Amino acid sequence: MNKDNHSTRHPFYEETLESKPIFQGRIISLQVDTVRLPNGETATREIVRHPGAVAVVAIVDNKMLVVEQFRKPLEKVQVEIPAGKLDAGEEPEAAALRELEEETGYRAKSIKHLQSFSTSPGFAEEVVHLYFTDDLEQGTVRLDDEEFLTCEAITLEQALTYILEGRICDAKTLLAVYAWRLRTLTGSF
After folding, report:
1. Structural domain of residue 43, as residue ranges?
2. Are residues 68 and 36 in the same domain?
């Protein structure tokens, strides 16, 4: 929906009356908006701004490429599909190709967009663009200076076990595993 088109606004639309920047970081920013509710009352909304991200379901020899890394907000090591944030002005497909090679050392010869989804629409605007490839060739791992991870290829059964064990618990990787399982069972997404 176009936020500027007053004639087609949804009855639940919240008009922004004021927006106050609170924090500007390298990856995210935080603002507090004062909004007019549908009933005419006002409320505040805390909003995290994020440039968006990409993630890749990459299958090689019937195994999914995953990375294992420490996630400070959770205070634990997680197994996740290759992913990363969009750089300024970067197209999602280009970012997906870049992140896949940087984190796994594999280069996708072709890639397919599966879905774009909001991660936490109650407080964040982040959208993750999920891609699929099984058309891979060897490339070069190029981790960022602050990035420490290992890459492995796991079977669908291992992925399901990792979910049960809590080693996989992030939304993008859960979605990836279930999409891969659907493709394995039906032949399509």
Report:
1. 6-49
2. no
79 and 141 share one domain: yes
Assign 3-state DSSP to the chain and report helix, strand, coil percentages, each to 5: 20, 40, 35
pLDDT tens digits, 99-140: 999 999 999 999 999 999 999 999 999 999 999 999 999 988
| Buried-state track 44-72, b at ≥16 Cβ within 10 A, e below 16 | eeebbbbbbbbbbbbbbeebbbbbeeeee
Q: CA-based angle 143:107:84, to the nearest 5?
A: 45
Which residue in 18, 137, 147, 165 is the catalytic one? 147
Q: Are 107 and 99 in contact (CB under 8 A)?
A: no
Same domain flag for 100 and 176 = yes
Q: Which residue has the tokens 């004021």?
A: 18
CB 155 within 8 A of CB 168: no
Mention every residue, 6+ apart, whose C-beta is less than 8 A from residue 70: 76, 77, 78, 148
Active site residue 93: no
pTM, to two decimals: 0.90
The answer as to whether 1 is a domain residue is no
In the numeric block, which tokens belong to residue 76? Answer: 């634990």
The CATH number linked to 81 is: 3.90.79.10
